[in-house]
Specification:
Distance between the termini: 96 Å
Strand content: 35-45%
Structural class: alpha+beta
Strand order of the largest sheet: 12-13-11-15-14
Bound molecules: zinc ion
Length: 381
């Protein structure tokens, strides 16, 4: 055996020549030169293939299930946090830089709902010698409240969307739809990973609905979508508020949605001499159909969606009654649904003369035949 003339600084044994060449690991670990002069026996005595933390904590939000990664909360949509635990343990484990041909596997053992024992097995080659090491890292699932859920719970919001209607209160259907629109819009934003999208509160008030929204931008988006779908218009106003936490001045926006005065399916009398109108559309100018003739009606540009008119009722107030006879092209006889007397009423062109029954509405403007539900009265899309 040749002599190297080098001695182990720890045990004082002379280091064989061959051993000195073996740990030539391609120049890796320049700072480890002092370790490399230890004899194999001393080296392996000190050697740890794996550097493992004593414990790993996985922070999850108990309200929404988000996971804390790096320095932020992330929605992962997982029910089971085992994969997250495996991922975070793997990131926390370190392998000795001198090791070559490293292979490893991790097996989770669920202890209870909040505790997982992560069994990791590593193998590698060091100084030409195969080495294996097993470590077990306890993982604790720590249930907390994420920033967003904390804000929601704390009632934080930046804008208010008020839903009102012109000269009336919004219907239950309109209120429900407006809330749905807000929730769908926020959900779509959340889908993109935006954690600042939330509805803090939806409150019914006498004349409509108030919704507290997390940001101004989303409040505006919701107001736009509500008017696009339900008609009407919105206006905005801003109020200066001061946030205590950072002392910064912030504006809180209010988006006031005003739904149209009349709604689709309402019967109104513009009192222009041509009789009542069934409202078909309130997007832009109000459009409808005359009940006496079936002719189209459209409000003037100036009147927009709110022409001066008398409210007579709604399509759902109509009742079916017997079509007794067709008198001529302008008149038919139907049974008055209240008196059951045969009366002559105008014949609109949508009336099906072969029908046994037709829907009629009795109002202060008289008795009128309405289009059938699902007929061309719904064609405004
Ligand atoms: Zn030694
Ligand atoms: Zn949360």
């Amino acid at each position: 055996m040749s002599r190297s003339g080098e001695f182990c600084p720890r045990c004082g044994d002379e280091i064989p020549e061959a051993a000195d060449e073996r740990p030539d690991l391609g120049g890796a670990g320049g700072g480890r030169n002092t370790e490399r002069v230890l004899c194999d026996a001393c080296y392996f005595e000190e050697f740890d293939l794996v550097d493992a933390p004593d414990t790993v904590q996985v922070r999850v939000c108990s309200r929404c299930g988000a996971v804390h990664k790096g320095n932020r909360w992330v929605d992962i949509g997982a029910e089971d946090y085992t994969d997250i635990a495996v991922e975070q343990v793997s990131e926390a484990l370190g392998v000795h830089v001198d090791a070559q041909s490293v292979a490893w596997q991790v097996a989770p053992e669920q202890v209870d709902q909040n505790n997982i024992r992560m069994h990791a097995e590593f193998s590698g080659v060091i100084r030409g010698t195969p080495v294996t090491e097993q470590v077990t890292v306890p993982v604790r699932i720590s249930r907390q409240t994420c920033k967003r859920c904390g804000k929601i719970a704390g009632g934080s919001f930046a804008s208010i969307v008020q839903v009102r209607a012109d000269e009336r209160a919004p219907t239950d259907e309109e209120r429900e739809r407006a809330e749905e629109i807000a929730r769908e819009y926020v959900a779509a934003r959340e889908e993109t990973g935006d954690r600042n999208a939330f509805v803090t509160e939806v409150k019914e008030v006498d004349d409509g609905l108030n919704m507290k929204i997390s940001t101004n931008q989303m409040g505006l988006g919701i107001a736009k979508r509500i008017t696009a779908q339900l008609g009407g218009s919105y206006s905005d106003s801003r109020r200066l508020i001061t946030e205590d936490e950072d002392g910064q001045e912030l504006y809180r926006m209010t988006y006031a949605v005003r739904l149209p005065r009349y709604r689709q399916g309402e019967i109104i009398d513009p009192e222009d001499g041509d009789g009542p109108v069934l409202v078909r559309s309130v997007q832009g100018n109000l459009k409808g159909v005359r009940l006496a003739t079936g002719a189209d009606y459209e409000a003037s540009f100036e009147a927009g969606d709110a022409p001066d008119a008398e409210r007579l009722g709604f399509r759902e107030d109509a009742v079916p009654t017997t079509l007794v006879a067709v008198e001529d092209e302008n008149a038919v006889q139907v049974l008055d649904p209240e008196t059951f007397e045969s009366v002559t009423v105008p014949r609109p062109d949508y009336l099906d003369v072969d029908a046994d029954e037709v829907p009629v509405l009795k109002s202060q403007a008289g008795l009128h035949v309405l289009p059938d539900d699902g007929s061309d009265a719904d064609d405004d899309g």
